[in-house]
Amino acid sequence: MKTYAVTPARYRRLAEITNAECLRHRVELLLSNLEHMDVFAGIEQRMQAQQNILFNLITQNDSNLNMEIAQDSKELAEASKRDSTALKIIALLTTMFLPGTFIATFLAMPLFDWSARSMSDVGTSHLWIYWAVAIPATVVLMGFVGTFAFTQSRKNKEAARKAREMAGADKA
């Protein structure tokens, strides 16, 4: 085996090479760190941009859902209005025929002699009672219904006005 003697001059030269190589590695490390800092400095901006995009997409999706809900609500309101109109007509017809039905039922009770020899004996003498009670009862009942409808309409308009005031929509 051959041994190499390390002379002081050679030791200095080896130390210089080692120091130079060490410095070169340190410079490369620092340059690498600077490159990474540049890369990571841009990441924050990209992350913020991605957050903004996601927020905008979620907001857009919510807006589309709200539009669909509003459309469904509008269709439901229109259907309710049609049903309400039909129910009002049924209630009106019922109100018109209810007193007459009551009186007819009343006359069908065994209070009258329906076994008379001719219908003119039973019908003519008692038929005026039907008309005398049915017509005024119908008029009075229709008056109550009309008054109730008018009162409800005024209450609904007042409630709508108050709701608009509370919402701040009635600024005119």
UniProtKB/TrEMBL annotation:
The chain crosses the membrane at residues 89-108, 128-151. Keywords: Membrane, Transmembrane, Transmembrane helix. The keyword Membrane applies. This is Cora-domain-containing protein.
